[in-house]
Design goal:
Blueprint lengths: L10 H4 L4 H8 L3 H7 L33 E8 L8 H15 L3 E7 L1 H10 L3 E5 L6 E7 L3 E10 L8 E9 L2 E8 L8 H17 L5 E7 L4 H6 L8 E2 H4 L10 E2 L13 E2 L2 E6 L7 E9 L15 E8 L2
Length: 319
């Protein structure tokens, strides 16, 4: 909806139109248009450009072998809404996924063309999405190791940004797990809604059976004072970064001083991307072991895979 006029546009009517033409016509409304029709301007499944030069990551080296005593996950806001160099950035992200071969992947800001590309490039994963249109979250499960039992999408009733909570119930190495991801409301001005969404996330984590391990990983957009306003985390839910000693090397996942993708002159360092963990009642089955940042190298296009760093978390599985 633009002004008082409702414009009904179908996908085949906008595919192929140049972005600059849309921006000239719609002006300040152009971003809303791109959110609704990102598929009209990019085809990530095209292999017209060479894949070998898209990233300095060599996925054939140091690929993590499956190990029943360890469980690994990646969470990453892949910034699908930024269409600049998107094909090369998507290949860069997939190179990291191939390199580290995690059991579970949590993604935010996925758009339909990116989803199609992921399905093509990561066929050894089952992909569950939080939406099918616009932009959305996704949870990817390695088929050889993680068995999906059920899935659920919990709407955030007062979101203004199409946000929700995506949950899956899975089995891994005999362990019952509830895995969750979300992209909580963005920007400082929406703190009240973001805190409300965080409370819903924590409530859902608490509702899982005590016999199960519960992991939430995603882009929370949280500032530390907002967690305090929420009443802090429940006693049985821990922040993995804090649990592992608050290491400086993986503290900030949104760092405009180092990451130049957004072209922001101000230096902003924030820990937007977080992992919350609730252990099973019988302690010791799964324990967080390490946390590292991903996506710190620029691609050949001169940009990083995303404006966010990814998080790689390794956990020990006590058999």
């Amino acid at each position: 909806m633009l002004g008082n006029n409702v414009i009904e546009i179908k996908e085949n009517e906008v595919r192929g139109i140049h972005r600059s033409d849309i921006q000239k016509v719609l002006g300040c409304h152009a971003r809303s248009f791109f959110l609704l029709f990102p598929f009209a301007f990019v085809d990530l499944t095209s292999e017209e450009t060479t894949d070998s030069t898209s990233s300095k990551i060599n996925p054939s080296e140091n690929t993590q072998q499956e190990d029943g005593s360890m469980f690994s996950l990646i969470t990453w806001n892949i910034d699908g809404l930024d269409l600049n160099s998107l094909q090369e950035r998507a290949r860069g992200v997939c190179s990291y996924l191939t390199l580290y071969n995690p059991d579970v992947i949590f993604l935010q800001e996925v758009i339909p063309p990116y989803y199609s590309y992921l399905k093509k490039r990561t066929r050894n994963y089952e992909i569950i999405t939080g939406h099918e249109e616009g932009y959305f979250t996704a949870i990817m499960l390695k088929k050889s190791r993680v068995k999906l039992k059920s899935q659920e999408i919990i709407p955030f009733p007062s979101t203004k940004m199409m946000r929700n909570l995506l949950c899956v119930h899975v089995s891994l190495s005999g362990n019952d797990l509830y895995l969750m991801t979300s992209h909580l409301e963005s920007t400082r001005g929406h703190a009240k809604e973001r805190i409300s969404q965080l409370k819903m996330v924590l409530k859902k984590m608490q509702e899982a059976p005590e016999s199960a391990t519960v992991i939430f990983a995603g882009d929370t957009n949280l500032r530390d004072q907002e967690v305090t306003k929420c009443g802090r985390l429940p006693d049985n839910i821990l922040d993995v970064w804090e649990f592992l000693g608050k290491s400086k090397h993986c503290q900030y996942t949104w760092d405009t001083q180092v990451n130049s993708n957004l072209g922001i002159s101000a230096a902003c360092k924030l820990r937007f991307d977080r992992i919350f963990f609730r252990a099973a009642a019988e302690e010791g089955h799964i324990v967080p072991r390490s946390l590292d940042l991903l996506g710190l190298k620029k691609l050949d296009c001169g940009r990083f895979p995303s404006d966010h760093w990814g998080l790689l978390c390794n956990l020990d599985v006590i058999l």
